[in-house]
Amino acid sequence: MQMKAYSVEWKFWLPSEQAFKMILNWKTNKNVTYQQFALEYFNSSLGFKIENLSLLIEAAKPQHSSVYRLEVTDENGIVGCTQFKVFVFDHVEKPQLQGRWKALADRKCHLALSCLGVRGGNVSYTWYRGNELIPTPRNLSFLEVEADVNETHTYTCNVSNPVSWETQNFNLPQGCLSDSSESRLLLFWVIAMILVTLFLGTFAYFCVQKKKQQQSQTNLSGLQIMYEDVRQTRRYQELNTPGEGSTVYSVVQFQFFNLTVTFGGHVQVLNSPSTWRVVIFLIALPEG
Predict the structure, then answer these.
(1) 123: buried, middle or exposed (CB in 10 Å: 19+, 13-18, 0-12)?
(2) Which alpha helices (H) appear in the chain, and where do they start and end?
(3) Which of 25, 33, 249, 261 is least surrounded by CB atoms within 10 angstroms?
(4) Using an 8 Å Cβ cutoff, are 46 and 38 in contact?
């Protein structure tokens, strides 16, 4: 301020009281007087330079951000006022970048990333894939994206404020890369096993059907019919030459070979022939 100062007052806006609070006052040829409230609020870190009427806050903190007012009164009682807003920022700490991932099909991986541990407010978040900026709709501390395992595997979170910035990187986990390959390999093996199972099932079905057909033919070929004249088999009965109106006895003998018997699901072939005899009555009727 370009005026000869007779007295000076520094004030700041206290939001909790919605009013300006006195920090200090000074008059010509007198010492600076600091307000007790101000000393406590600023932790006794205040200073004042008479040469240029400057207020010093040696240990400023973000909560000291506010509107500050300088009031200067000259010898004639004219008051000049200047006020301005002051922002105090902490140095941005290096963030912690945490991520969750899930392998997807087509060699892709779903990523959910979060920047954590950032102190203070008024920070901006910027995301990069390699050196490529990832556009986001808002200032987000988290990011969800589908990563292609064939592309760059490094993701970066940049945290900044008007006075500092820090970054942290996240590399795509090897498990995500391997799971994607393993998923394709697993799918290939599942399809292969299904095809092999279908082939073996079809092959076994035709083999069973062929075996049943062969067994059926064998059983039919094993059936033999033998005719034995009773007159030539004395074990049964001896007959004279048949006359008119007499009855002729004959024996029909059925003989089976390779008889197949099933017990409790087990197949057993009996090679011993089995013979069945049937007596056939032939009636000789008189002519005319």
Answers:
(1) buried
(2) 36-41, 174-221
(3) 261
(4) yes
Please indicate, yes or no, whether the overall pTM of this predicted structure exceeds 0.85: no
Question: Of 123, 113, 63, 108, nearest to 88 (Cα)?
Answer: 63
**8 Å CB contact between 41 and 23:** no
Total residue count of the chain as it appears in this document: 288
Q: Is 10 helix (H, G, I), strand (E, B) or coil?
A: strand
Can you tell me the distance from the alpha carbon of 217 to that of 219, in angstroms, rounded to the nearest whole number?
5
Identity of the highest mean pLDDT range in 52-66, 90-104, 216-230, 256-270? 52-66
Buried b (16+ CB within 10 A) or exposed e, 47-57: ebeeeeeebeb
- Helices H, strands E: what count in the chain? 2, 19
The answer to whether 124 and 142 are in contact (CB under 8 A) is no
Helix (H) or strand (E) holding 151: none
Question: In the chain, what percentage of residues exceed pLDDT 70?
Answer: 68
Q: How far apart are the C-alpha atoms of 284 and 270, rounded to whole Å? A: 40
Sign of CA dihedral 181, 186, 191, 192: positive
| CB-CB contact of 252 with 227 (8 Å) | yes
The pLDDT tens digits for 133-189 are: 999 888 889 999 888 877 777 899 999 988 889 999 998 877 676 644 444 555 555
What was the pLDDT predicted at 5? 80
Task: Please report, to the nearest 10 degrees, the dihedral formed by the alpha carbons of residues 39, 43, 45, 51 taken in order.
Answer: -20
Question: Which of 32, 31, 57, 56 is CA-nearest to residue 43?
Answer: 57
Beta pairing class for 96-104 and 132-134: unpaired
